[in-house]
Amino acid sequence: MNTSLIQPYRETVQITFPSFKSYTKGQAIYKQDQISEGFYLVKAGSVKLQKMLPNGFQTILKIATAGEIIGEGDFNNALPIKNLSYAIALEKGTLIQKIDSFCNLSQAGKAKLTQHLVDRTIEASHRHERLISLDADQRIKAVVKELAIKIGKKYGDETLLKINLTHEDFALLSDSSRQTVTKTFSTLKKQGIINYSRNRILFRNLENFKP
């Protein structure tokens, strides 16, 4: 394949995105099936990676938070690649940094990007294992605990998870249904294990919280 015409296109695309860009809640960073501009680093805030499936249903691949890399690309920036999902900012002030070129990265940056691609495979495998080994109630608990460990704030024995996800979002993340999420959260609240309101889940003791 002649890449002489593709490379200038890639270079043109790269310079259209500033080094840092701030997004508001619900704003798309990139869209599924559009030609990818490469990789991005989440500097602050959180991003929902949502995918439209061929059958018309949707799923959420993951919630990316500060320090994580999102996007599609190849190390040579030679071939056009389509985005595999929509990337949507979950909160006001979500800060994204464009990673322009693998070649220009430091050794630490190259290692982080390589690890990101490895992590994708591991996460996909982990999700598949969770789907076949846990029931819906357990998957929901596993998802919220993972998020709480990842971005929750500790207050003594309690952990507060603040995230702009609906019950439908939690259902898509856990491969379950909105009704099951609502039932699971309600049961946990009645048992005194969590307390929740819109965009907040308070774990009474996250260490003792079992999927």
TrEMBL record:
Pfam families from the UniProt entry: cNMP_binding, HTH_Crp_2
Top-level taxon in the UniProt lineage: Bacteria
SUPFAM superfamilies in the record: cAMP-binding domain-like (SSF51206), Winged helix' DNA-binding domain (SSF46785)
InterPro entries (UniProt xref): cNMP-bd_dom, cNMP-bd_dom_sf, HTH_CRP, RmlC-like_jellyroll, WH_DNA-bd_sf
Domain Cyclic nucleotide-binding: 21-72
Keywords for the protein's UniProt record, in alphabetical order: DNA-binding, Transcription, Transcription regulation
Entries under Gene3D superfamilies matching the protein: Jelly Rolls
Every HTH crp-type domain range: 134-207
GO annotation, biological process: regulation of DNA-templated transcription
Any one Gene Ontology molecular-function term assigned to this protein's record: DNA binding
Listed name of the protein: CRP-like cAMP-binding protein
Lineage of the organism: Bacteria, Pseudomonadati, Bacteroidota, Cytophagia, Cytophagales
